[in-house]
Amino acid sequence: MPVRKAIAEKDGVYFITFTCTNWLPLFKLCNAYDAVYNWFNHLKQQGHYIIGYVIMPSHVHTIIAFGNTDKNINSIISNGKRFIAYDLVKRLQQQNSSLILSELSSSLNNTERKGGKLHNVFETSFDWKECRTEKFIQQKLDYIHYNPCKGNKLVELPEQYEHSSAKYYIEGEHGIYSITNFMELRDIDLTKLRT
Fold it and tell me: pTM of the entire structure?
């Protein structure tokens, strides 16, 4: 169930999940995993750290260590979702995926339509949990890394899924995207204002 409560802090380590509207496998349909990597790059440039992730066909789980940029974390996530959504819609248009675009349009509510929004790519809210201990971070990393091995099994072993940080944490090798090991956070002051 989505958490609608705002994150009060401007720094800290958070487990974040956001989901495509109606659980549509938009990342797979658009081959848009790189849209999330581009957002990760933007976050790194702003002074944040990607600790772990898995990009599933229909949703994203990630653990992000937010450095204090004096920006609201909810806004940072919302802007990221918007950034990725524009990319996904553009790809769907290029693929002439009119049925999916129509479904994304029909999922809008009246307020969104009046505000000029054309497509509802992601569920409005996102799930989050603050990660206050290394034990909790490890628990969430295990959860996200085993995600592709559950349900409609995409792989047998977590490290086999290419759009995940599992390979790094299990084999010590970065996969498609390089992340920061959560143990390195011991030496990073996230509260220090970054400009």
Answer: 0.93
